[in-house]
Amino acid sequence: MDVDAVRSAVAGSGALGAPQLGLAAQGRSDDAEGSAGSRPRLAAPQLAVLRRYGSEHDVAADDLLFADGDPSYDLIVLLEGEAEIVERRGQPDAVVIATYGPAQFLGEMGLLTGQRAYLSAVASAAGRILRIPAAQVRVIMAEEPDLSELILRAFLVRHARLTHRGVGLTLVGSRFDPDTRRLLEVLARNRLSSRWLELEGSPEAERIVRELHVPPSDLPVALVPGSPLLRNPTSRELLDALGLASEHEIEADGSEVCDLLVVGGGPAGLAAAVYGASEGMTTTLAEDTALGGQAGTSSRIENLLGFPAGLSGEELAARAALQAQKFGVRIKLASRAVALCSGVGSHQVRFEDGEVVTAKSVIVATGARYNRLPSSGSATSRGSASSMPRHRWRRRRAPGARSSWSAAAIRRDRPRCSSLAPARRSTSSSGPAASRARCRAT
């Protein structure tokens, strides 16, 4: 299925996400929002600093600055003129998301994470711009603290608003399909802006499936701006299409050796990777779902040392990932480790996709995972029950239960081979300890 067919299928379905706004109405909405959060204006000294990292160019009206589907894009700083951020550019139902003027900059969190562009930027008037490559933006984030804070804050606010609107990837699938719920979890855990069309209650979903000739066996499908149609993709295939699966290609035969491999990208794993890389070690961080772990999905974290006002899980994950990139950590997403083999002086970790990474030291920070009762039909109903509010249930652990793999450092001189998986907490079906460990209503 080619890109044009996907674009034409999505076109015309304005109800896919948030209500569309006319150009005039959209302009009034942007002006009313103010510039302090999502559209700050840069002062002359800040522009002078940014000029050291980029190059200036003249642009004419209607020039394309970057397009949806681009593998990467530059940070665009407007010196003169205006530019618009457009969703579904070139389609009859194209929407102007925002308008920017002189001394303002274009971009959002995807520029820092390496995600493919899912919106387009067009010069709406002749002017002059400053282009800063993505690699140089990461240098700015590491070396210019004042600008780093300003850019990161604006990117986070923009990303939150785009996520609220449902801009970007479109997922079409049934609420009763385990694969749909799996992909929704990947999107949510990675904090990706997207929209979900339920087959059971969305005429737009039925129309897209019919126009793209998608049989039921191929559902769910993901429509990624600027990419071919994805039919029931794996988590790795979905993140690959978004440009997020891996920032560095590692030799599949394990011939490349790194100093430190960290398995698990939650707060503990991110911290270990940052500390290792800051000491000069060649460090690789592997995570099977999303950076930040469960903490990355928290709306507010108030007990983190050094942040008395608290911060969101998204901001915590974003700041930690930026620190990791600053020190040269190689990040592998959608990489589930399945086996570990240790020899004298090195260890090899095999991943689900067949890749093998060799490291002198390995830190396993995979967290914990609960066992599930072996009841019939549990796999198909998991995640779909809604009769009992989640806040009425509380998980409790049996006294003395421990997670032996939650944060284990593997010594270099211990030859061993074993399966590599998150620790499982016991949910045995009998005994008083098991009764206390089960979820129960409060």
How are the elements arranged and paired?
Layout: H1 3-10, H2 23-33, H3 44-51, E1 55-59, E2 64-66, E3 75-80, E4 83-87, E5 95-100, E6 105-106, H4 109-113, E7 120-123, E8 127-132, H5 134-143, H6 145-165, E9 169-173, H7 178-189, E10 194-198, H8 203-211, E11 221-223, E12 230-231, H9 235-241, E13 257-263, H10 267-278, E14 283-287, H11 313-326, E15 330-333, E16 337-342, E17 347-351, E18 356-364, E19 368-370, H12 378-381, E20 393-394, E21 408-410, E22 416-419, E23 423-425, H13 432-437, E24 440-441
Parallel strand pairs: 9-10, 13-14, 13-18, 14-15, 19-23
Antiparallel strand pairs: 1-8, 2-7, 3-6, 3-8, 4-5, 4-7, 9-11, 11-12, 16-17, 16-22, 17-18, 18-21, 20-24
Helix pairs in contact: 5-6, 5-11, 10-11
